[in-house]
Amino acid sequence: MDNPLPTLPVLRSLRTRTSLYFSASSRSQPRAYAVFHRRLLPALYTDPLDEYWALVHGVVLWDIGTEIPIEVRGPDALALLDWATTRDLTRCPVGECRYVFVTDQHGGIVNDPVVVRLAEDIFWLMPSDSDLLLWLRALAAATQLDVTIRPVDTAPLQIRGPRAREVIAALAGPSLAELPYYRVACTRIDEFDVVVTRTGFSGELGYELMPLNGSHSGPRFWEHLLTVGKPFGLRVAAPSHIRRIEAGIFSYGIDITLETNPYELTGYEWMVNLRKPQFVGREALIQIASEGPQCKVVGFILTGDPPTDLRDGLLLEPLPVRLPGGREPIGRVTSACWSPQVGRVIGFARIPFSHAQPGSELEVLTAEGWRAAQVVPIPFVDPEKRRVKA
Questions:
Q1: For the segment 241-290, what is each residue's pLDDT rounded down to a tens digit?
Q2: pLDDT at residue 17, as a whole number
Q3: Given this model, what pLDDT does residue 7 score?
Q4: What span, in angstroms and rounded, lies between the C-alpha atoms of 156 and 160?
């Protein structure tokens, strides 16, 4: 694929930092970087489809060290997080994880982290690309709850793909390799103390690994993983936008913003628990649930051959969406790509609720003009999540 990403020089400074693994991952010669949490994230090494197939058929190592975990610790840690999120975290026992929405007073999504419960009074949050640390500190200050909130000296890596379990077994034995979906373990891998979760955003079997004291141990840990994983074909790759779209996974800052509420996200409405007596945004979400959302973020399939601008899952600007033959746009495409497994261009679009039912006909403005599209259910691939839960 020629020139799949637009590239421009980036000036590194104290305002544009790197992950703990930047030097190590640089040896694999990334072709492009994205910015995530004001840090440079490797976005492409070879070709989006080449890396996609490595993920789907083999095993890959992702540097997602820009996603620094946030630790919430103290007697009131559970109370703070249960108030900050739309799910009932009192039902999350030690050793388990939960994907949650953090909402503001209007019901808008501030962040959509994974919460990891390490102890009765210790939680880690794996944040998406907004300033969750400051938001949680503000909530703690407003409520005067007894908590300490800080970034953790670690950075996550992900080992993903159908052979990921073999790599983990070689690293730490079969017990860790059989860690259940959305569970966490604290373990020793060679000389490294590591927190491991069965979480991630690829739609494929995988593990997230976070070495403690990462500022000192991170680069050595990276090399250790590559050495142990070599017999299984472990290779360095970038997170796959194609595979996340196939899996129906929305990305904060792309498909989700502060203007998005949970009821707009197709397939994720269940993540709001209005039976909770209180949480930030509850009153607003009660009203939205009663009246119904004005918009929905839905899946769509484009008819015909893939346009040149809708192949790798990255858009420079949202694409207008209209009704067939309409004059004015009614919505926008936020993510789109050519799916090897579906054999069509697929994507997500934010459109009025009245046109969001599966089967609704739309048109999308591409580089090659208006193209017909149809709203379809998501996920596009493996809707039962058999792969990621394997």
A1: 999 999 999 999 999 999 999 999 999 999 999 999 999 999 999 999 99
A2: 85
A3: 62
A4: 13
Q: Distances in Å between the alpha carbon of 8 and those of 4, 5, 11, 22, 32?
A: 13, 10, 10, 18, 9
Those residues whose C-beta lies under 8 Å from the C-beta of residue 388, and which sit 6 or more positions away, are: 181, 200, 202, 203, 204, 205, 206, 247, 382
Residue whose entry in the numeric block shows the structure tokens 């793909």: 161
Token digits of residue 45: 């090494």
Query: Residue 361 and residue 374: Cα distance in Å, rounded?
Result: 5
Question: What's the Rg (C-alpha) of the chain?
Answer: 21
Enter the tokens of residue 183. 């569970």
pLDDT of res. 6: 57
Asked whether 274 and 289 are in contact (CB, 8 A), the reply is: yes
- Domain 70-151 class, CATH top level: alpha beta
Matching residue, tokens 């990462």: 214
**For domain 17-68+154-244, which CATH number applies: 3.40.50.920, 3.40.50.720, 3.40.50.150, 3.30.1360.120?**
3.30.1360.120
Cα distance between residue 339 and residue 364, in whole Å: 17
3-state secondary structure 168-217: HHHHHCHHHHCCCCCEEEEEEECCEEEEEECCCCCCCCEEEEEECCHHHH
The CA-based dihedral angle spanning residues 284, 132, 333, 60, taken in that order and rounded to the nearest 10 degrees? -140
- Global pTM value: 0.94
| pLDDT score recorded for residue 186 | 98
- pLDDT reported for residue 5: 52
Residue by residue, DSSP assigns 4-40 as: -S-------BTTBEE-TTHHHHHTT--SEEEEETTEE
Strand 184-189: give its sheet, edge to edge.
184-189, 192-197, 206-211, 157-160, 60-63, 235-237
Side-chain-side CA neighbours of 15 within 13 Å: the count stands at 2
Mean pLDDT, contiguous 10-residue spans, the chain (390 residues): 56 81 92 88 93 98 95 99 98 99 99 99 98 98 97 97 98 98 98 97 96 94 98 97 97 97 98 98 98 98 86 82 96 96 97 98 95 98 95
Domain ranges of the chain: 17-68+154-244, 70-151
DSSP result, 149-173: EEE-S---EEEESTTHHHHHHHHH-
